Structures are given as C-alpha cells and as structure tokens.
Amino acid sequence: MTRALGYLSEIFTSYQGEATWVGYRQIFIRLAGCSLHCDYCDTQTARGFQPLKGYLYSTANKPKILANPITVEKSLTYIKKILKTTGPYHSIAITGGEPLEQPLFLCGLIKALKSEYPELKILLETNALDYPALIKIKKKVDFIAMDIKIPSVAKINLSLNKYAGILKALSGVKGCIKIIVSPDVLDKEIIYVAKLIKKYTPAWELILQPISKYKGKVKNTWYKLDKLTSLALKYHNKVRLIPQIHKLLGIR
Fold first, then answer.
1. How many structural domains is the chain composed of?
2. What average pLDDT does this structure show over 63-91?
3. How many Å apart are CA 102 and CA 34, to the nearest integer?
C-alpha cells in the first residue's frame, strides 16, 4: 500500500443525499482541506488543512477521534469495522473538503478500497478544479459527481470557461454535474453549463440543487426553480431538480 499520509475530517455512514446516486446507503470518507471558500459551503469544518484529528461516527456510539495524519492502512481498518458491524452498503463516497487536494493519499486510498472491497462502487465528489489530479484519478473510480461552482452563487472569483477543458477530459467517464442554484444565479450561467455538458459529456445528468439556506432563509421559489430547469432543458435533455435529501430526512 502507499506510504502517503492523509488528513481526514470524518468517516460516517448515511444515505447519499445529492445528485444521481441519491438514496444509496453509503460509507462516507470526508477528506480535510479545501482552498475554495464558497458562500454556500455546508461543510465548513472540513475546509481547514491538516487538522490534528478527525472523527469516526457510528449509529450507536459517540464519535471516535481519528488521529491525523492517517495512513491508508489505518483508514481501511475503520472501513472494515463499519462493514462488519453495520454492513452491507451499496458504495463508498469520497468527499471533502476537496479530495483532489490530497492526490497521493486519494490515489492510494482508492486503490486499496478497490483491492479490499471490489464489490463496493466508489463515488468521488469533487469540484474537479485540480486538473492534474483529476486526470490521474478519473478512471480509478466508478462515478464522479462534479460540483461546478457558479460564480454568482458561490461568490468566488472563478471563470466558468475553466470547465470546458475539464469536461472535455472527462469524456467517456461516468458521472454527473451538480450546480447549486440560488436566487442570485444568472440565466447565462445555466445556459453556458448546459451547453458544455451537452458538448463534452452528453450522457451526464445536470443536477440543479436548490440552495438549502440563503442568508439564513430558504429563498428559492417554485417559479424560479421551474424557470431554471426549463431553461437548462433547452440545451441539454438530461436535467433533474434534486434538493439535499439528507437534510430533508434530518440525517448526516
């Protein structure tokens, strides 16, 4: 196994609450660290780099502290315990933070999981902005749930043009695109993303995910969401409107 060390925010079990794989029972491995600071981020505790500890959550006990940095081998012992005590599961979701910002550990972790648990599919949740890491990892996982950051919603300085090359590189890979939508989203942003997907990854679904809270309140209206969905459908025929199901269920 790889000798690369990684930093985890948490390992827990739940049901996938977002995008195409919504509803699947999964083990979640959340890597720590993300260089972006999106306005709508709902995992801010995972944004910090190299935390001294992470947490292992189970359904019955208080969280166990995970000492960072951690080896791939040690990470697997926790996965093995979860499968033994609360399995079976459909798949493993590797999320963040931003997993691609720990590429060596991520590659080692995926390789080890595939070797030890070939029956479990691996979902990678990523913003895909680290292009070199993405190229190395894209064919090592079963599905990529890619979060395109819409500047008007995320409130970050990022050009959507960057995603053209990224999506082109993902042609032939299984995945989907998720974009968070709020009252601030611009029609031209939705159109641009829909066109990119249609051009480079036409088999991928475009998931519109209503922002759960906006400045402390839910602000999306049905009229707004229906308008955005119908607009996207004019340029790409695989568009779905899916809220964060785990939040509706009141689970992690």
1. 1
2. 95
3. 10
Q: Range of 96's domain?
A: 5-249
Tokens of 43: 């995992």
CATH number at residue 59: 3.20.20.70
Q: What tens digit of pLDDT does each residue of 106-124 get?
A: 999 999 999 999 999 999 9
Give the DSSP H or E segment for 213. Answer: none
Q: What is the pLDDT of residue 1?
A: 61
Distance CA 156, CA 153 (A): 8
Q: Is 14 left (phi over 0), alpha (psi -120 to 50) or beta?
A: beta
pLDDT tens string 139-158: 999 999 999 999 999 999 99
Is residue 245 within 8 A of residue 210, CB to CB? The reply is no
Rg (CA), the chain: 18
What is the DSSP-derived secondary structure letter of residue 88? Answer: -
pLDDT for res 214: 56
